[in-house]
Structure formats: C-alpha cells, structure tokens
Design brief:
The structure holds two protein chains of two kinds. Helices cover 63% and strands 14% of the residues of chain A. By secondary structure, chain A is of the alpha+beta class. A five-stranded mixed beta sheet of chain A has the order 2-4-5-7-6, with helices on one face. In chain A, strands 1-3 form a two-stranded antiparallel sheet. In chain A, a hairpin with a 4-residue loop joins strand 6 (285-289) and strand 7 (294-301). Chain A is elongated, with a radius of gyration of 44 Å. By secondary structure, chain B is α/β, with parallel strands linked by helices. Chain B has a single domain (9-146, 209-250), classed as 3-Layer(aba) Sandwich (Rossmann fold), CATH 3.40.50.300. Helices cover 43% and strands 17% of the residues of chain B. Chain B contains ten helices and eight strands. Chain B has helices spanning 22-34, 52-55, 64-70, 102-116, 132-140, 152-168, 184-202, 216-224, 228-231, 236-246; strands at 9-14, 40-44, 79-82, 85-88, 121-125, 143-148, 175-181, 207-213. In chain B, helix 6 (152-168) runs parallel beside helix 7 (184-202). The longest helix of chain B is centred in the C-terminal third of the chain and has 19 residues, at 184-202. Classes of the chains: A alpha+beta, B alpha/beta. The interface between A and B is small, with 11 and 12 residues.
Chain lengths: 310, 252
C-alpha cells in the first residue's frame, strides 16, 4: 500500500514538473527505494520510465534555454545596433559642433583683424594730421593719441594671432607695446633699459585694453619726463595676479622722480586722468612712491577671465 | 497624391546597401502587379550598373543614357517584356551617369512623365549608395520602398539613407520590405530595431510593408535569369511578393 502511494506521488511529481530536472531526480529517488522489495521487472520498468521522463525533461529544458538564448541574442543585437547608431549620431553632432566652432573662430579672427586694421587707420590718420599742426604741443597731443590707439590695435593684433581667441599673453603684449613707445619717442633701448615681468598672465580683451592703456600712459610718462636727456636709466614693469582675482601692475623708473605729485586734479595731464578713471572704473587703487625715482602701483579687480595659465 | 486616371503611381525601390535584392524585388513585384491587371513600367534607375535587363534576359538596344543624350522619343527604348510590363533599361558601366546634373534631372523627369502616362504603376529600381540620382529618384517618386535584409550593415545603410532623405530632402514616409528573413519574427524584430533608432534620432515612424522569406528559389531564379514569381509561383518568396502586390494601395 505504501509503495503504491509512493508511485502515485511520483506520478504527480512527473506530471507537474515538466522541465524541472532536479525536482524529478528528487522525486525518483524515494520511488526507487520503495520498490526495492517488488519483482525485478516492475522495478526496471519504473526506472526506465523515470529515465525517459528525465531525458524528455532535460530535452525540453534544453529547448527552452535555447529559445531564451536566441531571444536574448536578438535583444543584444538590437541593443548593439542602437548603440552603434547612437554613437554615429553623437560623432556626427560632435563634428557639426566642431565645424560650427571653427567657423565662429575664423569669424572672430576676421573681426579682430578688421578692428586692428581700423584702429591702425585711425592712428595713421592722426599721424597724417601732424603735418598740418604747427604747434609743437599739438603734435605731441596727436602723437600721444596715436600711441593710445596703437596700444589698443596691438591687443586685437595679438588676439587674432594666437590660438586662444579670447585671451592674450600679457607679457608679450607689454613687450610689443613698449617697443612701440620707445620707437615713437625715439628712445634708444640701450640708453633706457626696460625690464618686464609679466610671466604667464593671460588677459581677456575686457581687461587687456584698460591695462594696456594704463601701461601706455605710465611708460610714455616715464620716457618723456623721468630721465634727463642723454642719461641712462631703467624702467621696470611688473604684473602679477593677487588673491581674489586682483591684478597688480607696477611701473617704476629710477629717474629724477615726479616733481608735482598731482595735487590739483584740474591740472592733471590726460594720461594721469585716464589712469585715475580706469582704476576707479575697475574698482582699483593707485599708489605712488617717489623714492629713488617714481613707482606707480595699481591694483585692479579683474573680471572672471583672468587666469595664470596660458 | 492626387490619383487621376492618367496619373500613374511612381514607386521607388531603394536600399542604401547593394546586394540586398532591389532589382530582384523590383522585377518580381512588377510581374506580380501585372497579374492584378495593372500596367507597369519598370525603370532601371541604376544608371551606372544597370541589370534589370539581365534578370529578364532582355537584349537592350538603347537605354536611358542614349535617350538623354539624343533626345529621342523614350517610347522607342521601352521593351515590352511581358504582357502589361514594360522596361526602360539603364546604362551600364558609365560612371558619369551615377550623379545627375540639374539639367539631366529635368530632362529625365520630363521623359518619365511623358512615357509613364500609359501605365498604372512606374517602379524605379535605384542604384545602391547615396548618389545624387538615388536621392533625386526618391524625391521624384510618390512612394518609396526600402529593401533591407536583417543584417546590421544593411540596416545601417538604410538608416543612413533614411536620415539623409528625411533631413535634407523633406521625405518623411518610408515603406520597409525585409528581404531574406528567417521567419516572421526576424522581419518584425528588424523593423522594430531600425524603427526605434529612427524614432529616437529622427522622430520618424516607418511603415513595415512586408517581409520576404529567405528562399532557395530566389537564388535559383536569379541564376536562371527568370523571375521567381514565374519560375516557382508556389515558393514562399513568390507568395510573399504576390501578397505585397495585392497590398500596394497600403503604401504610405
């Protein structure tokens, strides 16, 4: 009775687990044990039946697994295709952006070039007007104006000549600017030596123009007034970045010193007034010492684009 | 598409990738269409390497290129290959015809319009690739039929052509026919895959016009230069093409 019961149970197990091979093995074991007392041919029959059922279950499991693998492979293939297409799209849009950027860059270069050309024309016009000026003071004023315009033209010239269209290497700019001034005032660089320390300072156009103008005024002033004729001397220009985005510009000379330290604002020269105005506009300070020559120290608050790296 | 009695429907069979069965489909589809009592003109638009005539064992006296150059009546070049079926052969081995100039396009449009008035359907078999003639035929047609096989290269090329046509040529209706599919699922799955990509990047819905199963009868028919709808009318592929010809009105 017990063995029949066991058979019945085993039949149930086979019926409900179509592909669970492990369940079948578990179910088959007690059955096998139970029929050990029965005639041998019956035992073989059940063992065979169990084996066949096991094989069928394994085969069905295999089929199902195979189908699952195929389905999963197809899904993966689809995924792969989608990713490949997405990659192509990304590359295409990246290329599009690069092209658009290149166009903008060349446009910007062209604009800087034209601005520089126009400023150069303004400077040339001022130069041409010198011929019609009898008054020596008038000629000097025109020449100063020329230098101011040139100092701005030089910034645009450097902007389109460098890879970074937004910033210029300020040290290089100051070298060019001062060379220009030495030339304009006919000063022999062997007589008045120039030292520039402005390493690794990159300035955006917003900052470079006012800084350029300040240096233009201070160096012009030094070249005109600081040194007795035929005597030698040195002009030091130093620029460095301070904390919190501030820039310090020092222009010092070892000349005869500033005679009248600008007591009366009304009588200030245009150059000094320009320096005052620019310094105030950029929230800066101006300090002047007149020991062993003249030393202007100006600190300005630079907009975001100032950085140490170039 | 306004369908007056004399205006044929112009279909353009295209693919992007070569060797997916455009010409074979065109010829067999055209023959299947003639069986529905339609008059069909097949234009071999592959003007660089034409071969519609090869599949039908036709001997070509003059082709599209000769017509464009001589300005002769295009009807002279038509070959009536079967009842209700005319073929306008293309030129073979002429590189300069692969890309069409604007003047040639205008002339060709005039030719096709002139010659097609006697037919119900004009089917243009385009070249592979994305040459200017392929783009022009696609713009010129009322409906396109994209033939693609389930392999990724064919899907990629079809996608590239669809993208180009939708982005630069204002075409936004595409009918896909999957060729050499192993089972219905593969066809649906492939369309689904490419559709997901077009939805995502081009916001385009594609129409799955049908699938043609992989069939040895097709390769045999090509080797024998006989259309498979005639050689083995009972084959799976022939049945699928006949089914498509009966559903030609569903093209978007």
């Amino acid at each position: 009775m017990t063995s029949r019961h066991a058979f019945h149970n085993r039949g149930m197990m086979i019926g409900c687990s179509r592909c669970g091979a492990s369940a079948l093995t578990v179910a088959a074991l007690p059955a096998h044990a139970a029929v050990s007392g029965s005639p041998p041919h019956g035992s073989i029959f059940w063992v065979l039946l169990g084996g066949i059922v096991l094989l069928v279950a394994i085969f069905l499991g295999y089929l199902q697994q195979n189908r699952m693998i195929r389905r999963r492979t197809a899904e993966l293939r689809r995924e792969l295709f989608e990713r490949q297409m997405a990659e192509k799209e990304l590359l295409a849009s990246d290329q599009h952006l690069r092209q658009s950027l290149a166009e903008k860059e060349s446009l910007l270069k062209e604009i800087h070039h034209r601005v520089k050309n126009n400023l150069q024309i303004v400077s040339s016009l001022l130069y041409l007007q010198e011929d019609y000026m009898k008054d020596a003071k008038g000629v000097e004023i025109l020449r100063e104006s020329q230098n101011r315009v040139k100092s701005m033209a030089l910034i645009h010239e450097q902007l389109y000549g460098t890879a970074d269209l937004a910033k210029i290497d300020f040290g290089r700019y100051v070298q060019g600017l001062t060379a220009n001034l030495f030339d304009a005032y006919g000063v022999d660089p062997a007589r008045i030596r120039l030292k520039v320390h402005a390493d690794d300072i990159a300035l955006g156009v917003d900052m470079a123009v006012p800084c350029g103008l300040i240096i233009n005024e201070l160096v012009s002033n030094a070249l005109k007034h600081a040194f007795v004729p035929e005597a030698g001397g040195t002009i030091d220009i130093a620029m460095r970045t301070l904390n919190a985005g501030r820039i310090e510009i020092v222009v010092a000379d070892d000349g005869i010193g500033l005679v009248e330290p600008s007591a009366d604002a009304g009588k200030k020269s245009l150059g000094l007034r320009l320096i005052d105005t620019i310094t105030t506009q950029l929230g800066g300070t101006l300090a002047l010492t007149t020991e062993n020559g003249t030393r202007f120290t100006i600190t300005l608050t630079a907009p975001e684009q100032t950085s140490k790296e170039f | 598409m306004a369908s007056s009695k004399k205006t044929p429907r112009i279909l353009c069979v295209t693919s992007g990738k070569g060797g997916v069965g455009k010409t074979s489909f065109t010829v067999n589809f055209a023959i299947a269409l003639t069986r529905t009592n339609s008059r069909v003109l097949v234009i071999d638009g592959d003007m660089g390497l034409a071969n519609v005539d090869v599949l039908l064992r036709l001997s070509v006296k003059s082709n599209i290129r000769d017509l464009l150059e001589s300005g002769a009546d295009p009807r002279q070049a038509l070959i009536f290959a079967r009842p209700n079926l005319a073929i306008l052969p293309g030129s073979s081995g002429v590189p300069e015809m692969v890309s069409l100039g604007e003047k040639q396009q205008e002339r060709l449009a005039g030719f096709i319009k002139g010659v097609s008035s006697d037919f119900d359907y004009v089917i243009i078999d385009t070249a592979a690739g994305i040459g200017s003639s392929v783009l022009w035929y696609n713009r010129f047609s009322d409906h396109n039929i994209f033939i693609l096989s389930p392999d990724p290269t064919s899907m990629t090329d079809a996608y590239a052509l669809i993208k180009l046509l939708s982005r630069d040529h204002g075409i936004n209706r595409f009918n896909l026919v999957l060729n050499s599919v192993r089972g219905v699922n593969e066809g649906n799955h492939t369309v689904n895959t490419i559709q997901r990509v077009t939805q995502r990047f081009l916001h385009l819905e594609l129409f799955h016009f049908g699938s043609i199963p992989e069939d040895k009868a097709v390769q045999r028919a090509v080797l024998d230069q006989v259309p498979f709808v005639e050689q083995t009318p009972g084959s799976k592929a022939a049945r699928a093409v006949r089914d498509l010809s009966q559903r030609v009105h569903t093209l978007i």
